[in-house]
Amino acid sequence: MTGGSGPLKGEPRVEIDPALPPEGYRLTVGPDGVSITGGGEAGVFWGRQTLRQLQGPDAYRRAPVRPEPPTLPYLTIEDEPRFGWRGLLLDVARHFMPKDGVLRYLDLMAAHKLNVLHLHLTDDQGWRVEIKRWPRLTEVGAWRRRTGLGWGDPPIWDERPHGGFYTQDDLREIVAYAAARHITVVPEIDIPGHSQAAIAAYPELGNADVVDTASLEVKTDWGVSPNVLAPTDHTLRFYEDVLTEVLDVFPGRFVHIGGDECPKDQWRASAAAQARIRAEGLRDEAELQSWFIRHFDRWLTERGRRLIGWDEILEGGLADGAAVASWRGYAGGIAAARAGHDVVMCPMQHVYLDHRQADGDDEPVPFGWVRTLRDVYRFEPVPPELAGTEHAARVIGTQANMWTEAADSQQRVDYQVFPRLAAFAEVAWSHLPPPDERDFDDFQRRMDQAHYARLDAMGVAYRPPSGPLPWQRRPGIPGRPFPGPPREKHRP
What we know:
Belongs to the glycosyl hydrolase 20 family. The chain has about 500 residues and is α/β, with parallel strands linked by helices. It has 2 domains: about 1-80, Chitobiase/beta-hexosaminidase domain 2-like (Chitobiase, domain 2); about 85-480, Glycosidases (TIM Barrel, Alpha-Beta Barrel), CATH 3.20.20. The chain is built from 15 helices and 21 strands. The strands form 6 sheets. Strands 6-7-14-15-16-17-18-20 form an 8-stranded parallel barrel, surrounded by 7 helices. Strands 1-5-3-4-2 form a 5-stranded mixed sheet, covered by helices on one side. It is globular and about 75 Å long.
């Protein structure tokens, strides 16, 4: 049905039709009102989001501002997502985001039909999840005494302590709020690298025969820490305790265990680590890292869950049943898919939203490569090496990642995430033409005509198309821009 328009009449009529895909829907607007048919409850929900779009920007406000109902075009829309995993990573470890901020981002994700929130809960700079069996993880690990500002040399410091954590009930609330919006929350607990905050809380977790772990503190600057977990039975039992409580809070199938950026120097120097390598019949430190991952892959599988990790888990042998989040480019995802493993494509060269949006001195704390709105809209989750092959179906989805070393507030996160998340959401949901054939001018026109106004109604402090506003700049805080065009690095 097309042609004509009329005022919105009451609540939409809703029904379920199992013949439609679970997240698919049919939306019909006509003189007799609105009907939404979904393949499942999620499909109905996404149909409601499309209806919200049709109602205009005021529909995104928290309360009505006009008494008259909006006028809607008469039409029928049938739609379904391209990918089942349409994700956003929020790094709440480097800079803590209070619970209300996470709930707000779930609303923003729902408005963009994204359905996976990846919460990066632990890192060298902070531990953000309450673990009752090991309380010092938050008593000590959730707080750092100061924070590096940008990447200057010599460093610039914010001398205020920084921290925070979520109680388990906070996280249950987040999970329930997400579920009501058909969003799954995937927790990340980093193993065996990115673990200095945990070692600061419990020094026996570190390689104490190599370094004075009792003197370590939660890391205050950025970069990869050399302090990694010791490959001991105690470490395994400790993280089993941690994950037991995590599984009780997060009911989703996937648990992310990191597995990335684990320097091997301490293991090379550690007599205890070398003894473990010999005892397990491992060839080297890379296989020792794989030993960690395989252990928790088996442990999670026994409990009906599934491990996902960054593409370094390919090194030393990929754990059976594990899925891969391919961040260092497409190569890790291609290798994993060809080996029969599911893949979430999130290459830093394309969808790392902490990377700068323009080349200029006005960009706040400029980091990484320039990734414009156009660049994100041209991102293709299925690389040519897999397209048209039996392995393409192994790409179960895609994800945009927002790391927060330089994003210390809700406004800074908003600036980095939007409007690029809108482009990413369209890529993740829609069956778009190949990148070179995509009509970015049409996308930009739709942004200008409607979507920036929707973001305004939701109170999003996005980067304007003309560049940062004066209060969005961070003069005097040095960044770390990457030179040249983005290229794949560190192929496994």
